[in-house]
Amino acid sequence: MKEFLWGGATASYQCEGGWNEGGRAESMWDKYLHEENLENGDVASDHYHRFKEDIKMMKEGGHTSYRFSLAWPRIIKNLEGEINQEGIDFYNEMIDTCLENGITPFVTIYHWDLPQYLEELGGWLNRRTCEAYMHYAKVCFDAFGDRVVHWSTFNEPRYCIFSGYLIGNYPPGHRDLQETLTGSYYLMLASAMAVKVFREGGYKGQIGIVHSFAPVYGVDGTVQTRIAMRFADNFLNNWILDTAAMGEIPGDMLGELSKTCDLSMMLPEDLEIIKHNTVDFLGLNYYARAVVKPYETGETTLIVNNSGSKAKGTSQTIIKGWFEQVRPESSRYTEWDTEIFPEGLYEGIRQVWKKYHLPVYITENGIGLYEDVTVDQVDDEERIQFMNMHINAILNAKEEGCDVRGYFAWSPFDLYSWKNGTEKRYGLVAVDYEDNLKRKPKKSYYWFKNVIETKGEAIKRETYGEV
Ligand code: BG6
Fold this sequence. Notes:
Elements: E1 5-9, H1 12-15, H2 28-36, H3 47-60, E2 65-69, H4 72-75, H5 85-100, E3 104-108, H6 116-119, H7 128-144, E4 150-155, H8 157-167, H9 177-200, E5 206-213, E6 216-218, H10 223-246, H11 251-257, H12 268-276, E7 281-286, E8 290-294, E9 301-303, E10 316-319, E11 323-326, E12 332-333, E13 339-340, H13 342-356, E14 360-364, H14 381-399, E15 404-409, E16 429-432, E17 438-441, H15 443-453
Parallel strand pairs: 1-2, 1-15, 2-3, 3-4, 4-5, 5-7, 6-8, 7-14, 14-15
Antiparallel strand pairs: 8-11, 9-10, 10-11, 12-13, 16-17
Helix pairs in contact: 3-5, 7-9, 8-9, 9-12, 13-14
The protein binds 6-O-phosphono-beta-D-glucopyranose (BG6).
6-O-phosphono-beta-D-glucopyranose (BG6) is lined by residues 11, 14, 155-156, 159, 212, 285, 364, 368, 410, 417-418, 420, 424.
């Protein structure tokens, strides 16, 4: 496959550790997890000190690209926007190590680790954060743009804003619809502002956005269900993808929201920036689809099962007046109750390609498992099956003409999984947190190497009927 990138994806807070080293400022996650006394990423996979070993393993595993994020608190010291040279040096080394190993760096500018000094002024609820982000993005383009040609402004705006301001299970831990709307808006505005800086600066390469993609399915074909599907698609996908790719916030969604929310922060000059600064590509993180039915009754309910036990109840999404998410009982699920549905990736890519006609990268896909990593080699056949099914779905979509340009496994090595801690393992390489963070490739690491080296020929193929 020509120019197809194969690799793994990580996020700074989830793997680096070194939280108070190299002049790094505090992030909102440090503050929140320390205060709540929860498992944190202070050490994580210690990638900060071991990135050379990790990148070498990626190379030996056949990877041609590495998707990682830059930590804003490592790069910008304070509210005045002062640059931390040690942070720049660290990422220069990381990028150079990738290139020396024949690995294309695929860089995310923001993967949720907002500096605490900005959070203290209201974080994404304060327009000032957009200006600060624009400055930070320019610093990154100036420092790394001679070698980095694949940029993403944000990782999963929907997931981080909803979790922080609507569900309340991520920092800052609020549950407020108006804040959710304000935070979403400022974050998407900041994304367009960074695209503007990128274009005006004449930096080389492409800039995109990464979305937590949940293709929407209905329980039946009734008109009511179709309306519910539209609400769900706006809620889950369109406000990111339409805004970033077409420069338009979905009008029907704003119409609905204006009944109860204040939209006065949406200034005409902002909307011009959004309109004229659309992205070059879409990154889709795919874990599962969303099956919905019309809203029936009850208050808005958003529950996420972070327990790793299906017995502890299922995740639930009800948006009052809009839709309810259902859990198809006959489907397969992970221990964390995420549905396994590769056909959704195939169908989703086709929808996205048809609607936006922009190149697509599958920027994350993977399965969280409980694993005993004390053995010589973890036999993660379940992960192999999972990845095979999803890469197969991508190949099917590509064969129908969709322009998919890369696949990134979440994750190249075990890392810290936010509220799920470190027991939820996603890596192709095991990290033994109990034994000096020792790295040991799992069976999937060798399987993926073979897939890459055969340019996808090693994938067991399957086509779908009607999906
Ligand atoms: C994506 C994020 O939502 O999914 C990652 O971009 C995250 O940061 C991954 O780790 C898996 O989710 P979780 O909650 O199982 O770690």
